[in-house]
Fold this protein.
Amino acid sequence: MLHTILADIDRDLFAALDARADSLTLRAILLRYHASGVTAAQVAALLHGLRPSMQDGAQEGPLEDMILDALDMVTGWCAPQLRVWDEQVI
């Protein structure tokens, strides 16, 4: 079962992923987690938890790519201007 961090932001994240939102929309949602005091590790765990549930359906390709893009912004494996947290998460 997927855990929640902050229910209202979680809902927005799930809706953005479902709608195939662009990277800047995803980053804006991730910034809300950051501003609420949520750690990069917590958000990374949430996103990692989403990956297995996406691999058994027709949504596999693009949706998993979006989750991985969001993970890149969380972990710091992205361009500096897209990074949300200063510390890197492995």
